[in-house]
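Below is the record:
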Amino acid sequence: MGKKYIVELERDEQEMLTGLIASGMQRAQKINHARILLKADDGWTDQKISEALNVSVLTLSGYADILLKKGSSGP
């Protein structure tokens, strides 16, 4: 299975997401969303992200749909 959505993050967005993960001060869901975005930006397929983060491909698609509707205001 390939990628349904292409993610291209700017350097400052990557740094913000990496900092969010490193802080450990966010909800697990928010940290997982940040991890999803960073892996997608690195070119990982949905299947590979799904396996690495132990989430379903449907979860990835659902999160992508939410982001598209919400805009790029973050995880």
Remarks:
- The two ends are 24 Å apart (CA to CA).
